[in-house]
Amino acid sequence: MSMGGRQRVVSAWIMVKDGGGFKFFDTAQMGSFYGGFLAQLPRSVHPKVFEFSKKLPKILQVRLLQRDHIWADLFGNDYPDFPDVALYFFPSANIERSKRNNSCLFDILEIRKSVMICYVDGVELLIFTSKQLDEDSQ
Question: Which residues belong to any copy of the AIPP2-like SPOC-like domain (predicted)?
């Protein structure tokens, strides 16, 4: 969980407390809010990740980062899989707007080959689509 002196939590695309979401503070999406997401921990989770999850704000302030800038450092020539996932972010099933946001946000991340990045309590959180996981983990 520690990388180069900084704590890092790697998360596949996948949740932030009921009605929570992501707000961009840079790029062309500046100020855009994508809401209606729920956060969920995997079945087995490191205690540090569990404690970190309690500190998540309802709205994560994110920016886009090109995947290729960090991918090789994190995963080499491989894809992330279950041990790399600290949190899952899911669109809320009961919020219609969430479905539209989900689709639009996926498009942004895939077309631009990007990940979202934010910092919570000194921890770097990387958020990417489940398509970026290895096939068995999707």
Answer: 20-138
